[in-house]
Design brief:
174 residues, mainly beta, eight-stranded antiparallel β-sheet, 2 helices
């Protein structure tokens, strides 16, 4: 099963809350362990039949390589992903659902930090554009682990996560 573009957009825009033990969380104190490998579950009070998850993955080899991923949980269809310090090859063929902003990147490898969007008619999250040209995600680079404190809330805002996050990163002992 795939979504239409309007269904994918609707699911991405739905207000979501984190869930734990079938309870909605309005607040979350988050203590990530570096490198981060986390899956957090979400649901929408407006559409309780849908479940979602937020995955945060930080490479253990290159800790400035970071992915934040929002996926619909039942179908495992990706709705949005932000990748910092990765490269991504885009499809060559353009269908009628590819946004104008994406067309210059057809058949090209997007170098560095980029954002993936669901585009109808393609494998989920097959298309990406550089973060530098995306006006809806304000953080463009990830150069220091401490920036995670800003990146996670920016991603949460983009996926319409309503749970208030307090992120606590403890310095590592050398």
């Amino acid at each position: 099963m795939m979504f239409t573009q309007s269904e994918a957009n609707y699911l991405l825009e739905l207000p979501k809350l984190l869930t734990e033990n079938d309870n909605y969380l309005r607040q979350k104190n988050y203590y990530p362990i570096m490198p981060i490998k986390e899956r957090l579950y979400m649901a929408s009070e407006q559409e309780p039949d849908f479940i979602f998850f937020l995955e945060i993955f930080q490479s253990s080899k290159n800790q400035l390589k970071l992915s934040l991923h929002c996926q619909e949980g039942e179908t495992s269809i990706g709705l949005l992903r932000v990748d910092f310090n990765h490269d991504h090859p885009n499809p060559v063929e353009i269908n009628e659902h590819v946004p104008e902003l994406f067309k210059p990147y057809a058949g090209k490898t997007v170098k560095g930090s980029h954002i993936h969007y669901y585009v109808e008619g393609y494998r989920p999250l097959h298309w990406a554009i550089p973060l530098s040209v995306d006006n809806s995600f304000l953080i463009k680079q990830f150069a220091d682990e401490a920036e995670i404190i800003d990146i996670i809330p920016a991603f949460n805002q983009k996926i319409n996560l309503q749970t208030q996050f307090t992120i606590n990163i403890q310095a590592r002992l050398l």
